[in-house]
Design a protein that fits this description.
By secondary structure, the protein is mainly α. The chain has 2 domains: about 130 residues, no CATH class; about 140 residues, no CATH class. Helix content is about 70%, strand content about 5%. It has a 3-stranded antiparallel beta sheet, covered by helices on one side. Helix 5 packs antiparallel against helix 6, helix 5 crosses helix 8 and helix 7 runs antiparallel to helix 8.
Amino acid sequence: MDKTMENRIDAAGQTRTAAESKLLVETAAAAGEIMLVSGAEIFRVEDTVERILKLSGTMEAENVALGTSLFVRLDTPEGETITVLKRIRDRSSNLNRVCQVNEVSRRLCSGEISLEEANRQLERIRKEIQYPFWMKGMGYIGVSAFFALLLGGTWLEGAVAGIAGFFLALVCFISSKVRLNDFCVNALGAFTVGIAALVMQMWAAPGMDRDMVITGAIMPLVPGVVFTTAIRDILNGDYASGTSRMMEAIVIALAVAVGMGAAMALFGSVRGGVPI
């Protein structure tokens, strides 16, 4: 009887340990996934996941982060291997989420919060909508207008660039609803900016500098953060991820060029082949 009770206690302890180990791996994978989706560097993602996995008390833990996937493995004291694979389909630049995940990781590793609380906070960060669409639209307008001014344009070019930024925000919002891929979104956005600038130059503001307006309005599409992150990954030795992000930046730049070229070609053909 005593032996039976002892076996039940041992079995319950093993089950609890396995459940905690599984939750630990899921929490580490969730943190890494959010950081990858938000555009964090590979070394930062792997460091955060590794620090969380160390809470298991075993050295048999590995994680590998790539630009499009995350692998996490942990060997439990009971001899069970827990492996989690995350496929990264969406990517953006959201440094606020990266900062929030880092804060959760620090508090978890220092013992300020429990594993369950950390998992709940990560789920909240994943689902949180930081800014509503109207605020993002204001960002598109403001970035377009003030970049035109920053590059030497007048208040006229700044105002027209802001209007072009409004149409760009509208295109990005509609594209998110129909779930277009990144190439089509950037090409369509650049096409819209080009048409808006050319139309307003012809009928609304003939004295403006068209190139200044176009340059300012396409700045929200320029993959500056992606390119910088790619360089940092390459310098840190993460060549696969750095190369994939570098290709992503090149594809975005190519999409912007294609969209703008199509706008100029279409506008020129509508005018009867007159150079623009």
